[in-house]
Amino acid sequence: MIEVRPGGRRRIDRVLAPGYASEPEALPLPTLRERRDEAAQEETDLSYLRRLLHARIDIVKAEQLRRSSDDPGDEDVVARLTAILADNALGPATGSGRHQTLEPTRAGEYRRAAEALVGDANLSDVVSLSDDRLAETLDSYREQEGSVSQRRREVQAVVDTFNAEIARRYARGTASVDELLDSQRSVSGPDNEQDPA
């Protein structure tokens, strides 16, 4: 389960802290953008973890299906891994449909966390698990996926709050694209500016 620790130092602790997005209208525009970007990065990382868990759920379910079929055959789940994962990728979308341009920042950490849910079994070992252990593994993955999905929705609400406030300021004329471009130029510095010729 993904817990949010009050006063914690992790990004998710900050993004989901009670006061983080409570009064966006009182924040200066640069702070709004900074917080929105931090929340968007957390959303990206949670989406990555969610995809990892979905892949593992698909693998366990495929092994259960193989075992329950009349002719389980010799081909194990690992040999059919590409097809199993492709079936999920081609199915109907179940996420938020939000386009994300950021890369996950904690990919290795999340892969290890997903594997730790199965204890001493790894994906190449899924065929050797007992039926009971396979069912426990699936329950564990589903429980974790539910927790990740819940936190992801909460973080998305924070991103949406900041985006709405930024859009409101542009609509009212209290923020301008020129200010945004000026602030980006000052961050990148004159050495990084492109030659217009």
TrEMBL record:
It comes from Prauserella sediminis. This is RsiG-like domain-containing protein. Residues 175-197 are annotated as: Disordered. Residues 20-85, 121-182 form the RsiG-like domain.
